[in-house]
Amino acid sequence: MNKESNVTKIAISGAAGNIGYALIPLLASGYVFGDRQIELRLLEIPHALKALAGIRMEIIDCAFPYLTDVLCTTDPLEAFENADVIVLVGGFPRKQGMERKDLIQANTKIFTSMGRAIGEVASPDVKVLVVANPANTNCLVALSEASSIPTKNFCALSYLDHQRAKAQIAIKLGVSTNSIKNVTIWGNHSETQFPDPLTDGYFSSDNGEKIPLSSLLANDLDWVTNDFVSLVQSRGKHVIEVRGNSSALSAAQASADCLKTWLVTGTVHGETISMAVYNDKGYYGVKKGIVFSFPCECKDGNWYVKSGLSLNDMALEKLEITETELLEEREAAHNLLSKTSRFRAYSTASSTMSLTSMAESDTELSTGGQFLTSRI
């Protein structure tokens, strides 16, 4: 992120969707970046531009104090130009009867084009958070195609699973969620993930005492290794069953908190968060070349995988299961990439809109390639 510039340029793909709708105010209000001025670039597919126009109207009506401009577009090259932060929320949704391999291949096409656009026009210091599922492999495809951007500048969202795991432990112990520290999500953002409260987790009491969760849960190991793991792994599915829609509010909040910790505040000394990052070092024996969730410490806009944790045999077996799935996903994505030429998922005809003066219409959105721009 360019700290020398007065304005932080943030691009969001799939901005008109439920997650984007919930995420935008967290970014525009100062929740994540404090009093830094923010410029939003909202990227959507053509048929979602009308909905995006309505969101733009609401953004104007919110009168966010740190927001300088909003650009709405269907062209990733415009959305990502000199962007400091990019949140990739837009992807191909899983449909009934669709196998995970089909989902991976559909999204590989999209994230190939996203990665190439990022590499071509984004700030060389851009930080990219991938939210759209399958998040780990989408992130791998994007960072592979954005060859000019360091792989360390990419992350896939496993922080939502991290927060889900903390919440379930807190409920079990009857304590506040934020008193639970260093729960770790290992592996994929899928039902093979391994939520692990025992290896490094602890309860932080009001007087500052750190009590290992392995002690507090010593009489509940069967629950920890079975019910708890299943609860966290399938939480997203259960939300859909009850709500009738996928997790949006919690995904947006987790995205904002991940960005805030990663890029602004850093982690408190001794604490970690779960981040799905590119494994170029073979951390904890996991095969290199995949995006894998690890316990990470953050400082000065960078993440560092915490080293030296001792994993028991059960944990190592769980890591191997999720590693295998990620290797299979990588193979499915690479098979498609080897067969296809350059692909653009979004319309190449630019359709853009920016925050306009109140004299311009709030009810019409050009889709004819015009570029409207102004500052608040």
Quick tags:
globular; three-stranded antiparallel β-sheet; 15 strands; 376 residues
Commentary on this structure:
The longest helix is centred in the last third of the chain and has 27 residues, at 313-339. The chain is 39% helix and 18% strand. The model is unreliable at 341-376 (pLDDT under 50). Strand 5, helix 5 and strand 6 (154-156) form a beta-alpha-beta unit. The protein has a 7-stranded mixed sheet, with helices on both faces. Strands 7-10-11 form a 3-stranded antiparallel sheet. A 3-stranded antiparallel sheet has the order 12-13-14. The chain has helices at 18-28, 49-62, 76-80, 100-121, 135-145, 159-173, 213-216, 221-233, 235-243, 249-265, 313-339, and strands at 7-13, 37-43, 67-73, 85-88, 127-130, 154-156, 180-181, 184-186, 194-196, 202-204, 210-212, 273-278, 291-299, 302-305, 352-354. Helix 4 packs across helix 11. It is of the alpha/beta class and 376 residues long.
- CA radius of gyration is 21 Å
SSE topology string: EHEHEHEHEHEHEEEEEHHHHEEEHE
- Percentage of residues in DSSP E strands: 15-25%
Helix content: 25-40%
Characterize the largest beta sheet: strand count, sense, and whether it forms a barrel.
7 strands, mixed
Mean pLDDT: 89
Number of helices: 11
**SS-based class:** alpha/beta
Total count of strands: 15
Major beta sheet, strand line-up: 6-5-4-1-2-3-15
Shape: globular
| Unreliable spans | 341-376
Distance between the termini: 23 Å
